[in-house]
Amino acid sequence: xxxxxxxxxxxxxxxxxxxxxxxxxxxxxxxxxxxxxxxxxxxxxxxxxxxxxxxxxxxxxxxxxxxxxxxxxxxxxxxxxxxxxxxxxxxxxxxxxxxxxxxxxxxxxxxxxxxxxxxxxxxxxxxxxxxxxxxxxxxxxxxxxxxxxxxxxxxxxxxxxxxxxxxxxxxxxxxxxxxxxxxxxxxxxxxxxxxxxxxxxxxxxxxxxxxxxxxxxxxxxxxxxxxxxxxxxxxxxxxxxxxxxxxxxxxxxxxxxxxxxxxxxxxxxxxxxxxxxxxxxxxxxxxxxxxxxxxxxxxxxxxxxxxxxxxxxxxxxxxxxxxxxxxxxxxxxxxxxxxxxxxxxxxxxxxxxxxxxxxxxxxxxxxxxxxxxxxxxxxxxxxxxxxxxxxxxxxxxxxxxxxxxxxxxxxxxxxxxxxxxxxxxxxxxxxxxxxxxxxxxxxxxxxxxxxxxxxxxxxxxxxxxxxxxxxxxxxxxx
Length: 478
Fold this sequence. Notes:
Helices cover about 50% and strands about 5% of the residues. By secondary structure, it is of the alpha+beta class. A six-stranded mixed beta sheet has the order 1-4-5-6-3-2.
């Protein structure tokens, strides 16, 4: 079903082989010399924990021909020698049991504090099923299959949804602390998939960008495909981080087809119509920056003085340094996004992939008094956004308006977490929840009981919290 992915992982990526390979061999020679020095001075061999193999009979071994690690010469290895992970503290985790030089096999016995012996990771955490799944090699394949299933089901809304299957990812593996890895970092060529193929960070970026465009069908900056983008910035993009403070030149390199960072109407359109989360978020951030007039630090240096710091902070929050029309742009985007979901939202259950951006817009509605926006988000698909609306209503100075809105939300709500937030917001406004709970006790008990039957740990937690609200209603001010 997913053979196209496995084929793509075996494709050769064009690169300047002689230069890259020479660089790699040079680094390897330097690593061998360092490993030799560590062994001669401390009697310890360095070898990546994750590359130690386990045979069917449960014994551990190193295939030196396949992965040398820091063992510069198999002939230098003797029975009883200690082997550490590739770490600065060179803690010994293994003892050599036997050496088969002709076949390049070094047999090992785990010794304390090896988690194979103690059941405790280097960080002090007791190993669990997740750790043992990594040890058995099941976690890596499972996570790749999760990505492939998302692609098949049309459930990819951001780069991070499928980042685990990329060459810049460090696969989940078993190490001194149990299950480790899983993150995307094209520059970590000592551990990521691309590094094992002698690729550098830029080549990894280019290969992954092309894969995401051609195989997954995502909109990708051309600068990532042709190598003009900085791999560090690409890594931030893939990992879903905010764009932060970057140069105008780098910002231009992040563009995908259709984006225009100088046209607010186009930015609003990208927020409302583009399916990818990172594109929506980027354009929202730029509208926010338009409201403020720039970053806090840049404006502080320009306008802030020691004797007016409080006034400056207030002016900044109020958008005094920004474009007067930015408030109008943000309002249009916030109101429009309230009713927009992914094409197959029902497949995501109660989760909305765009919940975080919507939550930000609810915050703007609270900040700028947009009651129409709060009203639009009262029925958001994701309970997290409804929670934020309840909080906003609970903060209103017009307590009567806030109470009416919250009572309307309470009447519709069936999610235990959201109900807790609504009840607390009603309490925040100074109103007693006793009568409301007594009036709807059958509804509350029904939600609590049905939630327990679901055997969902998160829902169960909120059901217990709701149960406390029901049995001990929050008292309002008298």
